[in-house]
Amino acid sequence: MANAGNQFEADGVRPETELDLVRAVAGFFGVALMAAAPAGLAGCADRSMEIGDAVGKPLAVVVEEVPETTTLLIQDVSPRVGREAAYWSGHHAGWTVIASCADGLRLDDSSIVEVAVIPSESFTNAVQRDVARDEFLTAVDCEDRPYR
């Protein structure tokens, strides 16, 4: 095997043809893998968000991620942004989560989740900066719920 690079030529297969064959096989398996990926990764895609990722998201999005078997506590903290408390249970549209905690890292791993919400129109750049500086961490109780 003094010249391994020419082995295919010795077998009567030109290098371009071998490269074409490799591309064809890789292309076939790539398509097969891409077709299988959605089914194989479906369990991974179904994993819900981490509790910390709920902050800044619309309440309606977060509620969809919380399993029915999980207790969800929603605190209206509108007075912290100069508004009257007005959240009405079951009406999730128009609210944004500004603080959160749970007894599990992910929403679907938790038995209890607590979020603090404000009207979405009050989620201004100034409030977003305050959220980033953890100014609203005390908006949720989090006793026995260590994950934020």
Précis, in short:
With 148 residues, the chain is of the alpha+beta class.
Reconstruct the topology from this structure.
Layout: H1 7-10, H2 15-40, H3 42-45, H4 59-65, E1 71-76, E2 95-102, E3 112-119, H5 125-132
Parallel strand pairs: 1-3
Antiparallel strand pairs: 2-3
Order of helices and strands: HHHHEEEH
Q: How many beta-strand runs?
A: 3
Q: Estimate the mean pLDDT confidence.
A: 76
Largest sheet: spatial strand order: 1-3-2
Descriptive overview:
The chain has five helices and three strands; from the N terminus they run ααααβββα. It has a three-stranded mixed sheet with strand order 1-3-2, covered by helices on one side. The N terminus is likely disordered. It has two domains: 40 residues; 89 residues, no CATH class. It is globular, with a radius of gyration of 26 Å. The chain has 148 residues and is α+β, with helices and mostly antiparallel strands.
Keywords:
148 residues, alpha+beta, 2 domains, three-stranded mixed β-sheet, 5 helices, 3 strands, 33% helix, 15% strand, globular, disordered N terminus
